[in-house]
Design a protein that fits this description.
mainly alpha; Arc Repressor Mutant, subunit A; Tetracycline Repressor, domain 2; 2 domains; 11 helices; disordered C terminus
Amino acid sequence: MLSGKEREVQQREQLFLDVARKILLEEGYPEVSVSRVAELTGFSRGTAYLQFGSKEELITALGLQCRRRLLGVIERAARFDGRPRERMLAIGEAIVQYVGLYPNDQRILKIIDSELILAKVGDERRAEMNDHDVRMFALVLEIISEAVDVGDLVLRAGATPEGLCLAFWMMMDGAFAAGMGSAPLEDVGIANPVAEAVRSSHYLLDGYGWRPLSQEWDYEATATRIRAHLTHAFNAADSDGHSVSYSLFQTATKEEARDV
């Protein structure tokens, strides 16, 4: 249990992060500074710098919040009660819903990457960010390895669980980048690039012969059970006060998704 002092420090840190997040999303990275956060929250600069030693430390702490949130929903998805391929679908559904519910998290993570902020923070902070990515990768790899162990997936010569995991990971990374890029995806009928990427990954698994194949199993029924399983992870509203539900089997526009 936290002491009163520890609780006070934690609440102050969250206040600083909330204000920094608002500035970052509304005004952009150049407008964020520890001094400005101190001014807007009514604390001294010394207090703010004691919490975050630099602008980069502050922004990276925001990134860690995003990473923790994503890791949490992926961990819940990985605990779905089903065959390995159903659990992979659960992770896909979790990522799709996470992106729909927390679109600003993706903006923050893209800013961190584009500004090379991690190059300017301490080793401990960089290691923490890396640890979250490693843990997410390990969850996916564990499911693929289980599928091989139980005989649902027989890999071709030269193929490895790590390689398939990387392919899935690259598709997700590419979808995140596409969603945050300037390409007019909605104009060509792609409302949710992450949902499209996960759907394509699902078909990719058929090519690998990962059973049950699409034509052998009612994955739409599985998706319904998955969404019920994920209820606690997504029993919240996004920053605009809307709840969101995306399905891999029914691509919705952003406006339609917000009305679900």
